Amino acid sequence: MEQTYKYFAFISYNSKDTAWGKRVQQKLEHYRMPATLCSEHGWSRTPIKPVFFAPTDIQPGGLSEELQERLRASRNLIVICSPNSAKSEWVGKEIAFFHELGRTKQIHFFIVEGEPHSGNEDTECFNPVVDTLGLPEILGANIHEQTQTYPFTNIPCPWLNKQRAYVQLISKLLGVEFDAIWQRHKRLLVQKAIVWVVGIIAVVAAIVGVWISGRPVNVELKLNEVSVHNENLPPLKDAVVTITLDNESKTDTIHSIDGSATFTNIPHHYLNQEVRMTFACQNFMNLDTTLTLTPNVVLNIHRNPSVYGNVCFSLWDSVHSQYLKNTTVKVDGRAVTSDEEGKVSLFIPLEEQQKSYAVTATTPLINDSIHLPCGPDDAVSVGEQK
């Protein structure tokens, strides 16, 4: 009847290699075997546990009765091999004790540093007890064995070689062919690497997205006059444009129709969002609108047709000092009659507007033109010139 053991393996190590001991324990206890092998051998998916590692149970020291009992209760002995363990008296004693139990074939070596049989105590990784006891030729799983390379190159891949060493140790512990689990393990590593790379790309993309969304941009605004252009009228000058972003406003001045305004340090997240824009300029229609913000904005504007189109003045009789009602005059050739209060008013279309208009009448005029803009307080006087 096969003997049962409390521990699947006992890890022997030097205190300077504690990190490696913990790492090997974690790898073995959490390694998931292929389902086919588990079904064939009647294993669980994690068959290599528990693994005894002294810091998690008792403090290392001499081979006390308690420590000897742990060794007896272990199916396998795993030796963390390095120049540190090669010089360790206690590692040697643990190997010797396990050998005395008649389990020499269950002693496994995991090389983390140094060289086997180097003949140099500074680099030798096997404890001298190995030769003293005359143990069979030992190869051991070596994390520095350069058999795996990066894809499409001959450059050694330390990470993959380390993974190969773990699988070598696992295959020896379970007594299965190395390739039976190594090829599957490599596929899983590739899949994990792809997931890792995709995850890194996603994180980088998210970081870049956040950086872009927070990076300020400059917005340039130009004007486009969509009303009829009239060369006789004064050109656009000193237009004030304001952009409002939530509770913040930015203002700039455009000095000519061909000029532009630049709003600096606009938070990137405002792009493609609706924002408020206002425009104010003499002789043009004021504008208060919302538009979609882009790095280059064009604002359509209209000239105010009433500034030079609404002609309004009073007809004054300078001889009799009174307003002339129901009197016909011509403004730029257009006949118009004053009302009961002597006021003259008419509208001239934008395309025909000028800065001043000639005024004629059947009676002599003291001033024969009216300058725009004008209003009821402006007057054209009728009477003999002195």
Provide the descriptors you would attach to this structure in a database record:
5-stranded parallel beta sheet; Immunoglobulin-like; Rossmann fold; 20 strands; 28% strand; 3 domains; 386 residues; 4-stranded antiparallel beta sheet; alpha/beta; rod-shaped
Q: Can you characterise this structure?
A:
The chain is of the alpha/beta class. The protein is built from 10 helices and 20 strands. The strands form 5 sheets. Strands 2-1-3-4-5 form a 5-stranded parallel beta sheet, with helices on both faces. A 4-stranded antiparallel beta sheet has the order 8-7-10-11, with no helix packed on it. Strand 15 and strand 16 form a beta hairpin. Helix 8 packs antiparallel against helix 9 (178-214). It is rod-shaped.
Helicity range: 25-40%
Runs in which pLDDT lies below 50 for 5 or more consecutive residues are none
User: Which series of helices and strands comes N to C?
Assistant: EHHEHHEHHEHEHHEEEEEEEHEEEEEEEE
How far is the N terminus from the C terminus?
A: 145 Å
Total strand segments: 20
SS class: alpha/beta
Strand order across the largest sheet: 2-1-3-4-5
CATH class value of the largest domain: Alpha Beta
Task: Output mean pLDDT.
Answer: 89
The percent range for strand residues is 25-35%
Helix count?
10
- Rg, Å, rounded: 49 Å
Question: Secondary-structure blueprint of this entry?
Answer:
Blueprint lengths: L6 E6 L5 H12 L5 H7 L9 E2 L1 H4 L7 H8 L1 E8 L1 H4 L2 H12 L6 E5 L17 H4 L8 E2 L15 H17 L3 H37 L2 E9 L13 E7 L2 E7 L5 E7 L7 E7 L6 E6 L3 E6 L3 H5 E8 L4 E2 L4 E4 L2 E4 L5 E5 L8 E6 L7 E3 L7 E4 L4
Parallel strand pairs: 1-2, 1-3, 3-4, 4-5, 6-12, 13-20
Antiparallel strand pairs: 6-9, 7-8, 7-10, 10-11, 13-14, 13-17, 15-16, 15-18, 18-19
